[in-house]
Design a protein that fits this description.
- The chain has 434 residues and is α+β, with helices and mostly antiparallel strands.
- Among the domains are: 186 residues, Nucleotidyltransferase, domain 5, CATH 3.30.420; 86 residues, Tumour Suppressor Smad4.
- Helices cover 26% and strands 31% of the residues.
- It has nine helices and 28 strands.
- A six-stranded mixed beta sheet has the order 3-2-1-7-8-16, with helices on both faces. A six-stranded mixed beta sheet has the order 15-14-9-10-11-17. Strands 19-18-28-27-24-25 form a six-stranded antiparallel beta sheet, with no helix packed on it.
- The longest helix is centred in the middle third of the chain and has 22 residues.
- It is globular and about 70 Å long.
- This is FHA domain-containing protein.
- It comes from Microbulbifer epialgicus.
């Protein structure tokens, strides 16, 4: 099946055929004496078998011995091999793959990874850093940042963009991965069920597994509506988006601190698509751009001959050709003069201390703090920054241009709907002390 990409990220290994994503598989294993479950199958069993779970094998890829009764599981590299085998069995892997790897892999881990892949029978024809391919088609000249969410940590890469996009450094934020967001959210939902229903979802492995299975849907709904009614075992608990944001604020604060420490004056912060599923993830920085889900695959396709090795010896590519500035078509947010604090609509100025919802009612644009049945967009506040998130299928306009991805709002921005005159204006309300 032609050409494709294998992206290594323990929050979800992804396989692309051309630019089409055909599989995502989380880096989780459940190890039984005679059976190894891996990927999604393991994730669906993890809470039922907590002592048999290993979700560290990609981050700690090595030949370090593991205590296991299963003969196929001597060390973390064995689990990586099993994961690649599982992927091969569940999709038609392209005949030639470029391997995109995170910048925090050591040379020893890369060598071991290539050995494992060679044993798996997957044909890798190129090896490249994930961060530079992620931003290669969208980044303007300058020192830019790429922020990736992994399972156990966040990876912040500094990339120097000129004629080439070159990786300069890769720093990790420990205990700031998808796993830690899930644990924080689970505490919020568990506390809500206990307080509102006198029901502890963690009282049994079965209900705990169900909680973790449903939680991504609940979080997504809360991000769209400002709150969610979570249903579990015929019980219902109400959780607000603000509760979820507050629970993960310490994690996001550590990520922001790393980003601010590495940012230059004119840097653009490119964040992976995974952050769009994290409450507050769309407000990691002021001058920020949310990357598309297929950006790595598109970038590699555009540079296939550049990245494809001409022999069997693979070397890690840390520098790729950058797109000319004149060909950059994405709209990059510029630093705002004033931070937006309120939404002005008609004669009302609504403070955005809690989520505000934009919707269409009786042929008029409306904005309210009460979740409507069909919101068109949601404005959220985190750490003093407002962000606009558009619901799927809605054609919203910002300053006269169509938008689909989350954007930060600055004072003076005008929100509207195509072919309608009504607008909502983001404004800054300053308070003066006497």
């Amino acid at each position: 099946m032609g050409q494709g990409v294998l992206e290594i990220n323990d929050s979800g290994l992804r396989v692309f055929v051309d630019t089409n994503e055909i599989l995502e598989s989380p880096g989780v294993a459940v190890i039984e004496p005679r059976q190894i479950y891996i990927g999604t199958a393991a994730q669906m069993r993890a809470r039922n078998h907590p002592t048999q779970v290993n979700n560290q094998f990609w981050r700690r890829l090595s030949l370090e011995s593991l205590k296991s009764e299963n003969e196929r599981c001597r060390h973390h590299a064995d689990l990586a091999y099993c994961h690649l085998q599982e992927i091969s069995e569940h999709c038609d892997v392209p005949e030639e793959l470029v391997l995109a790897v995170p910048g925090n892999f050591t040379r020893e881990q890369l060598a071991l990874l290539l050995g494992v892949i060679n044993e798996s029978g997957i044909n890798i024809v190129g090896l490249v850093d994930s961060a530079i391919t992620s931003i290669g088609d969208v980044a303007p000249p300058g020192m830019q940042l790429h922020v990736e969410l992994q399972l156990h940590q966040t990876l912040v890469s500094r990339i120097d963009v000129a004629e080439q996009a070159t990786i300069r450094s890769a720093e990790t934020v420990a205990d700031a991965g998808l796993h830690h967001f899930h644990e924080a959210w689970a505490r919020v939902f568990t506390d809500a069920f206990i307080m509102q229903c006198r029901f502890d979802p963690l009282h049994s492995a079965e209900s705990e597994q169900q909680l973790y299975d449903l939680m991504p849907q609940w979080v997504s709904r809360a991000m769209r509506q400002g709150e969610v009614l979570a249903e579990l075992d015929d019980r219902t608990a109400k959780i607000t988006l603000r509760q979820l944001q507050d629970a993960t604020a310490p994690i996001l604060s550590r990520v922001r601190a790393m980003v601010e420490n590495l940012t230059d004056t004119n840097s653009v912060i490119f964040i992976s698509h995974r952050w769009a599923e994290i409450p507050g993830g769309g407000q990691l920085a002021q001058r920020m751009y949310l990357l598309s889900r297929d950006c790595i695959a598109k970038s590699i396709k555009n540079r296939w001959q550049e990245l494809r090795s001409q022999d069997t010896t693979l070397r890690l590519i840390n520098s790729i050709s950058a797109i000319p500035e004149s060909e950059i078509t994405v709209q990059l947010d510029a630093p705002s003069e004033a931070v937006a604090t309120h939404l002005l609509f008609g004669h009302r100025a609504l403070a955005a201390y809690q989520p505000l919802f934009v919707f269409w009612h009786e042929d008029k644009l409306q904005v309210t703090p009460t979740p409507p049945e069909h919101p068109a967009a949601t404005v959220t506040n985190h750490a003093g920054r407002l962000a606009l998130r558009v619901d799927a299928g809605i054609h919203m306009m910002l300053n006269g241009k169509k938008i689909a991805t989350p954007v930060n709002l600055k004072a003076g921005d005008k929100i509207g709907i195509a072919n309608q005159n009504d607008v909502i204006t983001a404004i800054s309300v300053e308070r003066y002390e006497t």
